[in-house]
């Protein structure tokens, strides 16, 4: 009998409450019944985003929400600052280029996080209208200090845009308190849903740019979203079942409490890091910026990283993620976000130990699991 366990940084496992909500009979989206569901979802998202500003639900992946940010905030010929410290930071640059926006790129060594001073210096040297950063760089397991970056941007004319697709509901992000203008996220990470919904919050400062923007936009026009929301509606057909399920997921997060969610994810990540070190494995991300959403671990010498991930998945039903781009075959990633608890981590580490041992990597069996248990017992 084979069971499947999902510990990838998206999609993440679906709670039973979410599965039940997804299975309900569908209702028409232009009805008072769905308007009530939609209103509840937006209010719940504001709780998770920690904002009182507008939050819109888009029927897209998180990348759709990223594109919405670029298309609405900027016009061809504008200048933006982008931070490239991994695959998803590079996506900001690619999106800006697609809309004719000039990018001042800050390249950061993969495994490290950009410093606020670097952004401040670049901002003073340019006339950037927006700064695009990534809360959690999923390809490297690095978390960015958004609070310090917001501090150096808040008194400038530029807006701060944060990709929080794999960080929202996992890592603390005080949108209003810190002065973050636009936050992007997606449904399939910390929010414990299938892929298919993108989310975007918009501050008053950001609205000024949106109203003045000249980039072509239609489906992702946030002005249209705002107008539709005056009637508690969406401009186009939304993903009805996913929105229904979103409320189930948001209810779970509210019941646990955001601070407790952050503590749980942090403890799971600490356990993975301690286990990896006990096994003699090297962590990819610098310890000063290691993410609580996922941990990237270097594949030990003599081991084929792609075969490691494949064996865990195909032989034992435990799915983790391999490395991306130049890290393909060189790292593997274990998620600590969403519907996971300490026993999911123990199981994954147990499987990792077994496969590593079978592949010829020698260590004392159980030492990684023991290290994780010691974290959980504190």
Output the helix-strand order. Answer: EHHEHEHEHEEEHEHEEHHHHEHEEEHH
Count of alpha and pi helical runs: 14
Question: Average pLDDT, to the nearest integer?
Answer: 98
Shape-level CATH architecture of the largest domain: 3-Layer(aba) Sandwich
* Total beta strand runs: 14
Identify the CATH homologous superfamily of the largest domain: Type I PLP-dependent aspartate aminotransferase-like (Major domain)
Outline, from the CA principal axes? globular
Total of domains:
2
Helical fraction equals 40-55%
Beta-strand content: 15-25%
Low-confidence stretches: none
CATH fold-level label of the largest domain: Aspartate Aminotransferase, domain 2
N/C terminus separation: 34 Å
Structural class: alpha/beta
Biggest sheet, in brief?
Answer: 7 strands, mixed
